Amino acid sequence: MSHFTTSDGLSLYFSDTGTGLPILCLAGLTRCSDDFCFVAPHLSEHRLIMLDYRGRGRSDWAEDITTYNVPREAKDALELLDHLGIERCAVLGTSRGGMIAMFLAATAKSRVLGVALNDVGPELATDGLEAIFDYLGVAPTERTWQEAAVARAAQMVGFANVPHERWLQEVKNLFEQTPEGLKLRYDPQLREAVRHSFKAPSPGLWPLFDALDGLPLCVIHGANSDLLSPKTLQKMFEKHSDMIKTEVPDRGHIPFLDEPESLEALRRWIKVMRQ
Question: In whole angstroms, how far apart are CA 13 and each of 1, 55, 111?
Fold first, then answer.
């Protein structure tokens, strides 16, 4: 297991595997680097750097929960790149990770080779945000991974043709199984940190998206997503007509990234960066 220390003293977990094009993989809000276990085997010819954000996975929890925010998490990502001696990399961002990727493009564009956004954009649908608050910081009532996998299959609206084994791996990525039941793999205080950020006036995310201009851009959209709407996706395409976009059938928020449509889009994105 590898860790590095941030400028404010937290020990953050990361993995660094493979050689070739460096791709920084940034997970969703409550998730960690394990979230990329489904797509990683398909990207084995590249150098994959995966980070557990502060307060998630195997990384330290922050005493100051207000540091659970996109700018600080983007700074952590840059400090990881510095730690590894990587000047520039591609960024594959899932949900929260995509917001961080856009922030990096706006504030440290010289470090970014290209960006792939997994079911996220500069406008977030209200239904999707409300769904996030339904579970954020709340431990599951199920006591085992098996129970949680069955429950998750029923709860994940918009998903179809997903085998039980996939849901089982998904819940193992999300929860720890203990004699007392399932535990969150992140600081429950993340809920308050996000709530606090929502109370502040929002500057809008479109300027961050506009910062992607000139970078190879890929957007993967779950056909049944409740967070990234078709209207927002169309507006994104109008602003960046050369972006690679794909819709993944039978998927809501978020696609697993190993679907044929996702993999084809990622391969096209990588090919553009190699040209």
Answer: 7, 10, 21
Greater confidence (135 vs 25) lies with 25
240 and 213 in contact (C-beta within 8 Å)?
yes
What contacts 24+ positions apart, CB below 8 Å, involve 128-136?
Answer: 128/225, 128/226, 128/227, 128/228, 128/253, 129/227, 131/226, 131/253, 132/29, 132/194, 133/191, 133/194, 133/195, 135/30, 136/29, 136/30, 136/190, 136/191, 136/194
Please, what are the domains in the chain?
A: 2-136+200-274 (3.40.50.1820), 138-185 (no CATH)
pLDDT of residue 196: 78
What pairing do the DSSP bridges indicate for beta strands 22-26 and 244-248? unpaired
Q: Residues 36, 11: contact at Cβ < 8 Å? A: no
- CA-to-CA separations, 88 to 23, 44, 112, 162, in angstroms, rounded: 9, 19, 5, 36
3-class DSSP assignment, residue 78? helix
The predicted pLDDT at position 199 comes to: 61
**d(C-alpha 206, C-alpha 204), whole Å:** 6
Q: Which of 2, 14, 1 is nearest to 76 (CA)?
A: 14
Extract the tokens encoding 151.
């429950």
Whether the predicted model's global pTM rises above the 0.85 cut: yes
Helices (H), 122-202: 126-135, 145-155, 164-174, 190-199
In the chain the beta strands, taken as DSSP E runs, fall at: 2-5, 11-17, 22-26, 47-51, 89-94, 112-118, 175-178, 181-184, 217-222, 244-248
Q: How far is Cα 258 from Cα 249, in angstroms, rounded to an integer?
A: 12
Look at residues 7, 85, 75 and name the one whose alpha carbon lies nearest to residue 49. Answer: 85
Instruction: Tell me the C-alpha distance between 260 and 247, whole Å.
Output: 11
